[in-house]
């Protein structure tokens, strides 16, 4: 099964120095590398944009850009956005707010039967209301 990898995980691997990571963060990076090796790691546009935003050094930006180009993106259609809006509405009705990007991630993963790999605890809240399956690194 494919796994949609959120910004928080990619950032650990691509934007942080390995020596600065905690033991838990190193386990997450290892899990990402395993997913990549198995051909299961996925990315979508909002995650790619977030990863590339705020990088001040041109060389570092280019390196991360080049690395991310190895990961094609699924083609999103109207149904992905419509379901994201519906998921947002369901969560808001239960008092759980989230960003449009988060719900698009949930929608893309749900429609393709993928799991979501993230350290963002908001996704745990969403999963209580909508059909979001979270990937747990073992």
Total of DSSP H or I helical runs spanning 4+ residues? 7
Write down the oligomeric state.
Answer: single chain
C-alpha-based Rg, rounded: 15 Å
Distance between the termini: 15 Å
Strand numbers in spatial order across the main sheet: 2-1-3
Shape summary = globular
Kindly describe this structure.
With about 140 residues, the chain is mainly α. The protein has 2 domains: about 5-70, no CATH class; about 80-110 and about 120-125, no CATH class. It has 7 helices and 3 strands; from the N terminus they run βααβααααβα. The protein has helices at about 5-15, 25-35, 45-50, 60-70, 80-95, 100-110, 120-125; strands at about 5, 40, 115. It has a 3-stranded parallel sheet. α1 (about 5-15) crosses α2 and α5 (about 80-95) packs across α6 (about 100-110). The longest helix is centred in the middle third of the chain and has 16 residues, at about 80-95. The protein is globular, with a radius of gyration of 15 Å. The two termini are about 15 Å apart. The mean pLDDT is about 95.
Which secondary structure elements does this structure contain, and how are they paired or packed?
Elements: E1 3-5, H1 7-14, H2 23-37, E2 41-42, H3 45-52, H4 58-68, H5 78-93, H6 100-112, E3 115-117, H7 122-127
Parallel strand pairs: 1-2, 1-3
Helix pairs in contact: 1-2, 5-6
Task: List the keywords.
2 domains; single chain; mainly alpha; 138 residues; 3-stranded parallel sheet; 7 helices
Briefly characterize the structure.
The protein is mainly alpha-helical and 138 residues long. The protein folds into two domains: 66 residues, no CATH class; 42 residues, no CATH class.
């Amino acid at each position: 099964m494919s796994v949609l990898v959120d910004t928080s995980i990619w950032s650990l691997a691509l934007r942080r120095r390995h020596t600065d990571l905690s033991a838990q963060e190193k386990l997450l990076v290892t899990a990402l590398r395993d997913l990549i090796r198995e051909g299961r790691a996925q990315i979508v546009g909002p995650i790619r944009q977030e990863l590339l935003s705020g990088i001040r050094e041109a060389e570092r930006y280019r390196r991360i850009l080049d690395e991310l180009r190895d990961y094609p993106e699924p083609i999103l259609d109207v149904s992905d956005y419509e379901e994201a809006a519906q998921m947002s509405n369901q969560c808001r009705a239960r008092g759980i707010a989230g960003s449009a990007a988060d719900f698009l991630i949930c929608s893309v993963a749900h429609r393709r039967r993928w799991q979501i790999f993230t350290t963002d605890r908001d996704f745990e809240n969403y999963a209580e209301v909508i059909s979001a399956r979270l990937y747990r690194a073992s």
